Known about the structure:
By secondary structure, the chain is of the alpha+beta class. It has 1 helix and 5 strands. It has one helix spanning 18-30, and strands at 2-5, 8-11, 46-50, 53-59, 66-68.
Amino acid sequence: MEENTSAGYRKLKVVEDSAELRQIEDILSSVEWERAEVEMSVPPHIRFITDAGFFSIWVTPNKNRIEIK
């Protein structure tokens, strides 16, 4: 996982523990997802890579939702 900072992206964490990965998968699979077309004017707040691909995460201005692409 990498976080966007004023100096660019910095590595937050490398998750290799299978129990921790399973917990992340459980959280993401339990979310009520909504498909939407989004266009962001800023770079992603967080980005990460998995075996399934590259993901970018934006936190909405009200900080009550995230958007993943």
